[in-house]
Amino acid sequence: MMERDLVSIIIPIYNVQEYLLKCVESVVNQTYTNIEIILIDDGSKDKSGKICDELAEKDQRIRVIHTENKGVSAARNSGLSVAVGEFVTFVDSDDTINSKFIEELYDAFDSSVDMTVCAFNRVDKYGNIKSIHGKEGVSCVLDREESIETMFYGKLFAGHSWNKMFKKSKLNNLVFRTDIAVYEDLLFCTEYLLKADKVKYIPNSLYNYYDREDSALHGGMTTAKLTAFKALDMIELLLHDLYGCRFIELINYNRIIWILDCYHSLFYDKNNRDTYHTFLKKKLIGLKGNKYLSKKEKFKLFLIQINPAFYYCLMFFKRKE
Predict the structure, then answer these.
(1) Is the pLDDT of residue 208 over 70?
(2) In 3D, which of 45, 72, 90, 11 has the Cα closest to residue 227?
């Protein structure tokens, strides 16, 4: 039997000693064995770095890079700079993957497909599956424009970096923007799709995304969260050059969704409401009447546009239920 291509698996790591062993164990135990596992210790202050070194001693497929703390994007870029596989995928260090994750994503490639993507499970901190993101039972191949539209609507798959496999030859010098903390992966995937021809979607839920209270997207409001708008502005420019206004409503949909997420953060962060409200209010100008919004999203947006206090009241009573 011919040996199949090497697949590089890049795992950025920062202060995840509680979850790291379980994550790497799920990667080591893949049915597809021709892999290199690149652990990027991003200046962890806990025992994560030591755990990485111990894991590398047990499996020759594991490589460890210790760096100063520069953030997840820089860590992923470090992994990309040393990856030698013909294919590349990413796993977050507090998540796990199904034992057939690499095999099924790899086998879905053919000469016309440049990216494969699978459904994923949203898992609570106790390990229970809360929901499945994606459409089960239906495999499909999408061209470039269909892939962009699908990714920005997010119902079949979204712009995460971690439930996808990329061709190394298509990546070239593509990297994650280190000045963007949110939607940096959406920007990366958009830039990649502009180099790609087709994407194959696999309906199997092969990735386990853990909703954790201490993750980067939870907690109070920060200026880092506002970098999502910079990413969307850059994406708008990229797509406008090729497609004019075709995707503008989808980009605006993502702007609205992130504004709603920001107000969700501000519900738990009373001290910062005045600081961010003016900025978010300006971002809402001209974003009414988006056809992609659900009734629930439209209602939340309506309350915020009248007065954010109404939205906070809604959140308060929902928590009481």
Answers:
(1) yes
(2) 72
Q: Is the CA virtual torsion 124, 56, 61, 33 positive or negative?
A: negative
Phi-psi domain of 11 (left: phi exceeds 0; alpha: psi -120 through 50; beta: other): beta
Whether pLDDT at 133 is above 50: yes
Rg (CA), the chain: 20
Beta bridge partners of 63: 38
Dist. CA 316–CA 318, nearest whole Å: 6
Residue type for position 277: H
CA distance 89 to 188: 13
> Measured between alpha carbons, how far is 281 from 239 in angstroms, rounded to an integer?
25
pLDDT per residue as tens digits for the range 84-102: 999 999 999 999 999 999 9
Say which amino acid occupies 117. Answer: V
* DSSP structure class, residue 316: H
Q: Indicate the length of the chain as a whole number.
A: 321
- CA-CA distance, 310 to 287, in Å (whole number)? 19
